[in-house]
Amino acid sequence: MELLKLIFIGVFCAGWVDAVWDFEFTETEPLDAAIVIKNGSKEFKTLYSHLLPYMTDTESVWTVFGDNGVSVKSLVAVLSYFVLGGKSKTASVQQRISALQASSLYLLLLGIPGSVVNKVFHQILFDTCLNTVSNCWPQSLVKKRKKDTLKSSQADGKRSKPHRKDNDGDEEQEEVHLSPQDLLKIREGVVLLVKSLLRLLLKFPLKDEPQSADNCVQMFAKLTNFEPVIGELTFGAGQDIDAMRTMPELAYYGLWLLCSSNHGDEKSLRRVFHRILYVILMMSKGESDKPSLMMATQAVLAARDQAIGFVSHVVDELKEPALPFLRILLQHISFRMVDKTDYRTHGAQAVAKLLAKMPCGHYASFIKWLFDYSRQSKVAYRMFALDVSMALLEQPEREANEDLDAELVTFLPHRFLVHNMVFGRRSDASPTVRGHALTCLAQCLELPSMNATRSVKELFSTSEFLSHTHVCTHAQTKDTMALLKRRVSDPKTNVRKCALQAMMGLLKHNVIMLSEENLAVLSERTRDPALSVKKKALQCLMDLLAAHPENSLVQKAWLRGVVPAVVDAESSVQEKALECLEQTILSQVKSHGSYSYRDAQQTLTWDLLGLLCDHCQDLGRYFSRAFTVWSKQNKFTAAFINNLISHTEAEHAAGAWLLLSKVASSCPRLDYGKILDAWDNLVRSDIITWLKSFDMPLEVISASVETLCRLGKAETFLNQHCGELVSVCEAYLSGVILNENGAQNLNEDLVVKHLYTLGVASLHCPSKVGKRIVLLVQSVLTSSVEQQSEGSEELAGSQPLSQFKATSMPSSVRAHAVITLGKLCLQHEELTRKYLPAFARELELCSELAVRSNVVVVMCDLCVRYTNMVDRYVPNVSACLRDKDPLIRKQTLTMLTNLLQEEFVKWKGSLFFRFIAVLVDSDPTIASLCEYCLVHLLLKKNPVMFSQHFIECIFHFNSYEKHKTYNKFPQTASEKAKFSLKGAQNKERRFTIYRFLLVHFTDAQRFNITIKISQNILACFVDGELPLDCDGAAVLAETFGILSLKEIKLSALSGAAGAGGDELQEDEQMAMAKAVMQVAQKKVVSQVQKKVFIESMIPIIINLKSMLEQKRSPVLKDLMGYLQLTMQDYRNEVKEFFAADEQLAVELEYNLKMYEKEKEHEMEAQMAHCSLVGDAVSGGTPVSTRTGMQHFDRCSKTGEEGRVLQLMSPDQQTPVPRQWNVQSPLNQKRTRQIHQ
C-alpha cells in the first residue's frame, strides 16, 4: 500500500475514472496536476515484485486492496493511462518504459486469483497491452526492413506495384531518437511484459476470448524473429520462465501454451499454425495488410528453421490430433509460395522436413494431393511441386505398412516422384516448367538416393534387370530420347539450357550411350543463337570430359564443340572457350621427363592433340586463332617451348609439332632457334624425299609443300625445290600422256597425286611453269596427244575442254586436272582469260559430277583474284543452283554466299532471283541452308535487298517480260527453262518465296511495298501500259493474291510483335501498360494506313474493277476477294471508302454479309461432318472438339492458293472459288427491270 501511495498521490476523481471505463480504454483525459510519478519506473518494478507472489499465495490481494481503500477500478484506469501514453510515435523513452511496465502490471493482476470476480479483465485493454510491444519498440527498424524487402523484390526482374505513400511522413521525422542504452531498457520492458503474459496463460484460459487469443498468437509470431538466438531452441512444456533469456524462446513457449485446450479446442492449433505459416514463408504479416516478402537474411532463415522445429515439436507431442492441421499448413505453404527461386527452394525444404513427421498413410495421401497440385493451371504451383519432389527425393524412401490402403502404396516410392512428378512435366505448356523439370531430372542423378538414380535409368533403358515390375519398351525409350533431343532445340532459350544439363547428366552417369549421335547434341549447341545456351553447352562439355577423360568419343565431341567457339561472334563465348582450352591443353604441357601415363590430365592433353592431328584436322584454323590470342597475352614462355621440344622425339611427337607450328605462326617475336634446330635434325632433310616418293595422302602433300615454303621464303629456295617437284611431275605426266600405251596402264592414284603436287608446287614457283606443262594438264582433260596434231595449240574459247575429243581418262583424274589448271590460272592472267570460256561451257555440258563440282570451285576462286574478268561468267556459276545433283547445288550456294559477303560478287542481273529460288529446292536441307544464308548472313549486310527486288520477283517468276523496266536482264533459253516458276503448277512455290520475303520485311518496308505495287503494277494495267492478255491477267491475279497475304499486313496491326521467349510472366500492371501502348500504336498506324488506302489504292481499284467488268475478265473475282479481306478491317466504312462507286460499295457490303453467313453455315456443317466421320471410323467413339477445330483450321485457306478466303470440307479435294456478285441487290434490281 505504501508503494501505491508513493506512485499515486491524491484522490482520484470518480468522474475521471468513470470516463476512462466509459470510453473502454480507447482514450483518457489528462490526470490531475497532483497525480505525478515521483521515481519513474523504479516504483513500477518494486510494485511488480511485491504483487508477483500473490499469483501463488493463498492470501488474496483483493482483500488487501479493499481493506486499504484502494479501488481496483481506479487502479486499472490509471494503468491504462500509462499504457495509452506509450502509444504515440513521439512518446519519450520514459513514457514507453512506463507503458510496458504498466501493461506488465495489468497482466500480472489478471493472473492473480480473483481477477475475474473483481472484473479486472477487459478485452480492449488486454489487446492494447499486447500491442504495447509494437507501439513502444521503434518502428524505424521495421520500416527499413520493408524497404530492403522492396528492393529485393525488384531485383528479381519484375516491376513491383507502386506502394501507397504513407500520410505520416512528418510524424516519422519527428519520431524520438533512441540510443542503444534506451533500446536496452525498452527491451527489458518487453521481456517483462512477455513473461507476465506467459504466467497469465498458465493460469488464465482464453477459450472464451478468441479475439484475444488471436492477438496473443500474432504478437508471439512477430517476436519469433525479434532477435537472433545463439544455439538451438528447445521446446517443451516444463520450462522455467525466469530462466529464459531470448525473445524467440519466450515467444515459442507462448505459442506452445496457446496450442493447449485451455485456450480453445482445435481452433487454437489452427490459429497458431496460421501465424507460423508466414514465418516459414519468410513473410511479414500485419493485422490487415497483405503479407510482404522479407529478405532472405541469415536472421530470417534462422527464424524459419526455428518455426519448422516448433511445428515438428507440436506434431511429435500431440500426435494424431495435429496431423490434419499439419496437412492444412503444408497446403497453405504450397498455395502461398511466391514464384522466386530461393524462396521456392526454402519452402520445398520446409515441406519435406514437415512431411517427415507424417506417418506413411498421411504421407502417401499428401503425395497424392501434391500430384493433383502439380497439374494446376498456375505456373508457380507446378514449379513448386517440382521443387518439393526434389526435396523429398533427398529423404529416405518410405516403406509401406501392412495396413496402408493399396491405392496409396504407389505414391510412396521415389519412382513415382521421378516418373510422374518430375519427368511428367517434360512436355508442360510453360517453357519455364519444361526447363525446370529437365533440370530436376539431371539433379536426380546427383542425389545420394540409389532409388532415384534407378528410377531415372528405367526411363532410358530397356534392360529387364533394372526393375522386375516396371520395364520400358524399346519404343518408349526411343520416344523418350527423341523428346529430349527436341527439347535441346526448343524455341525457348531456358528450355534448351535445361535440356543440355539433363543430356549431360544422362551421359555423365552412363544412363544413355556415349555415342557420336548423342554427343553431337552437346557440341552442336555451342553454336546456338542464344549466348547463354552456348555458354551452357561449353560448361556441359567440360563436365562431361572431366567425368570421362579416357573416352575418345567424348574427347572428339569436346574438340568439336570448344575449339570452333574460339571464333564465336560473342566475346564472352570466346573467352570461355579459350579458358577451357588453356585449362585442358595449354597448362598441362610439361617436359617429357616429368610425364607419366598415370597422370590423367597429361594423358588427356596428348590424346586431344593426337585427335587434332588425325581425325579433327579441320579444326586447325580455329585452333590457330586461340594461339593468336594467347600470344598477345604472353602465354608462351621459354620453358613452355622447351617442354614441347622435349616431346618431339617421343611418342607424342605429332601433338608437340602441332603446338610448335601454332606457336611459331602466331608469335613471331620468340626466339625459335631451338625449334628450327629440332626441325633440321628430324624432317628438313627428308621432306623433299617424302614429296618425291608420292606416297603421302593429298592433304599431307599440301601441308608438306607449305611447310617447305615457310622454311625457305627466299625466291631461289622456292624455285629450286618447288621447281624440282614441278619437273618431276612434268616428266611423269609426259610419260603417261605422250606414251602410246600410257593411258592403258594408268595408275589412277599416282596420276592424281602428281597432278595435285604439280598444282600445289606451281603456286610457289610460277616462273618454272611452261607452256608444255599447261598443255599436258589440258591433255588430261581433253584426251591424248593426237589432239595436238589435229589443231592449233590454242583452244577455241567457246568450246568446253571435254568437247575437243572424247576423253579416256577416269573422272577423278579429270577432276583433279581441273583443280590443277585452276591453280595455274591463278598465277597467269592470260591463262585465266583463255580458259574461262571453256570452264563456263564445261559447267553446262559436262556430265561428270566431280568435274562440274571442281569447275565451280575454280571459277569462284578465280573470281576473288580476277573479279572484273570473271564477273561476266557469274550467271554461268549461278546456273548451277539448278544443277541436277544436290551436292553441286549446295556447294554453289555456299560459295556464292561467301563471294556476296566479301562483295566480290554483286546482286546484278538474275543472281538474286536464282538465289531466292533455292528456297523451294526439292532438297529440304538445301532450302534450309538457303534460308540461313539469306537471313543470317546476307540480309544483315544489305537490309533492303528483299524489298528492292520484291516487285521484280512477281514479273520474273511469272516469266513476264512486257514491263518496260522489270525483268529485262539477258538470259539464255536454257537458263530461263531451268529457273522458270511460271504456271499454276508452280504457284504454291512462288507464294512460298513471297511469304518468306514479306516475313522478313520491316513494317516500313511492308507499307512502302504496298504503295509500290499499286503504282508499278496495278496502275500500269489501268493506264494501259501493260496489256490485259493471258499473261497479264496471271500477273494481276497473283498481285491481288500477294496483297491478300497476312504476311503483308503491318505487324503493329496484326499483333505479331512478340515478347522475349525466356522471360517470366509479367505482372498485371506491366501487362496492362504494354497493352495500352500496343492499342495506341495500332490506332495511329491504322489511321495512316487508312489514309493511304483511300488516297492511293481506292481510285486505282475502282478504275481497275470497271475495266475488268468491261472485258469480263476472270481476274475480277481476285480483285473482289482482295477487297473483301481488306474491308473486313473497315467493316463499317465501306460506303465512305467507295463513295465514288456506289455499286461496288453495295456489292462489297452484300459479299461481306453473305461471307459471314456462309462461314457460320459451313463451320456448323464442317463440325457435324467431322463428328460423323469420327464416329464411323472409330466405331462410335466421339471425336474431340479440339480435333475437329484443328481440321477446320486446316481447311481455312486463301482461295486459289492465296487470293480469296475459302472453306473446304473434307470431301472436297480442291478449294472451289466463290462466284462473286451473282445475286447482289443491284444485279437483282437490273434483272427485274429487264424482265419488266
TrEMBL record:
<keyword id="KW-0498">Mitosis</keyword>
<dbReference type="GO" id="GO:0000779">
    <property type="term" value="C:condensed chromosome, centromeric region"/>
</dbReference>
<dbReference type="GO" id="GO:0010032">
    <property type="term" value="P:meiotic chromosome condensation"/>
</dbReference>
<feature type="region of interest" description="Disordered">
    <location>
        <begin position="1208"/>
        <end position="1236"/>
    </location>
</feature>
<dbReference type="GO" id="GO:0005634">
    <property type="term" value="C:nucleus"/>
</dbReference>
<keyword id="KW-0131">Cell cycle</keyword>
<dbReference type="GO" id="GO:0042393">
    <property type="term" value="F:histone binding"/>
</dbReference>
<dbReference type="InterPro" id="IPR026971">
    <property type="entry name" value="CND1/NCAPD3"/>
</dbReference>
<feature type="region of interest" description="Disordered">
    <location>
        <begin position="147"/>
        <end position="177"/>
    </location>
</feature>
<dbReference type="GO" id="GO:0051301">
    <property type="term" value="P:cell division"/>
</dbReference>
<dbReference type="Pfam" id="PF12717">
    <property type="entry name" value="Cnd1"/>
</dbReference>
<keyword id="KW-0226">DNA condensation</keyword>
<comment type="subunit">
    <text>Component of the condensin-2 complex.</text>
</comment>
<comment type="function">
    <text>Regulatory subunit of the condensin-2 complex, a complex which establishes mitotic chromosome architecture and is involved in physical rigidity of the chromatid axis.</text>
</comment>
<dbReference type="Pfam" id="PF20168">
    <property type="entry name" value="PDS5"/>
</dbReference>
<dbReference type="InterPro" id="IPR012371">
    <property type="entry name" value="NCAPD3"/>
</dbReference>
<protein>
    <recommendedName>
        <fullName>Condensin-2 complex subunit D3</fullName>
    </recommendedName>
</protein>
<dbReference type="GO" id="GO:0007076">
    <property type="term" value="P:mitotic chromosome condensation"/>
</dbReference>
<dbReference type="GO" id="GO:0000796">
    <property type="term" value="C:condensin complex"/>
</dbReference>
<keyword id="KW-0539">Nucleus</keyword>
<keyword id="KW-0132">Cell division</keyword>
<feature type="signal peptide">
    <location>
        <begin position="1"/>
        <end position="19"/>
    </location>
</feature>
<feature type="compositionally biased region" description="Polar residues">
    <location>
        <begin position="1209"/>
        <end position="1228"/>
    </location>
</feature>
<keyword id="KW-0732">Signal</keyword>
<dbReference type="InterPro" id="IPR011989">
    <property type="entry name" value="ARM-like"/>
</dbReference>
<dbReference type="InterPro" id="IPR016024">
    <property type="entry name" value="ARM-type_fold"/>
</dbReference>
<dbReference type="InterPro" id="IPR032682">
    <property type="entry name" value="Cnd1_C"/>
</dbReference>
<feature type="domain" description="Condensin complex subunit 1 C-terminal">
    <location>
        <begin position="851"/>
        <end position="1016"/>
    </location>
</feature>
